[in-house]
Amino acid sequence: MKDSFAELVDLLKTYELTISTCESITGGMIASMLVEVPGASKVFKGGLVTYTNEIKTRLANVKSSTLEKFGAISRETVIEMVTNTAQKFKTDICIAVSGNAGPLPDENKPVGLVYVAISIIDKIYVYEFNAKSTNRNDIRIETVAFVFEETIKLIKKITKN
To answer: Strand order in 19-23's β-sheet?
Structure first.
């Protein structure tokens, strides 16, 4: 997985793209893994950890009505998280994640269910990801790996690399 961090940062540098994050389930793990790579400061502008609904609303500008109607663990919420964070940081790429790491179902949604939104230059891709593990930390690690793999694929797709 560590190779994918370096590959992502290298792709971002090559194509002069910037990135930001808005994380719930991963608690800043995506941002942390990005900054482990030397030179990440050239492409990573920053990130938000919006672990509670209150902070999702206050920092990521997710509408209260979205959280009430769909819940934090939803396609609708990650779309608002990614859109608003990309605008806030003025980045070419933004990643947003929200899900249930357990140990119990939350919002009537199973442990391991994660929603991921990746915006790349005004286009948003949304994924419903189901972690294989039921261990809290392993779910977070699987989510980070999934996010890096998908972001790399999308960058290669838009740059025809």
So the answer is: 44-49, 19-23, 93-99, 113-120, 123-130
pLDDT digits (tens, 9 = 90+) for 19-55: 999 999 999 999 999 999 999 999 999 999 999 999 9
pLDDT in tens, 95-121: 999 999 999 999 999 999 999 999 999
Tokens of 140: 């977070």
Judge whether 13 and 39 are in contact, CB under 8 Å: yes
Sorted by sequence, the CB contacts under 8 Å of residue 10 that are 6+ apart come out as none
Q: Radius of gyration (Cα) for the chain, nearest Å? A: 15
Smallest CA-to-CA distance from 3 within 124, 142, 148 is with 148
Token pair, residue 98, equals 């929200």
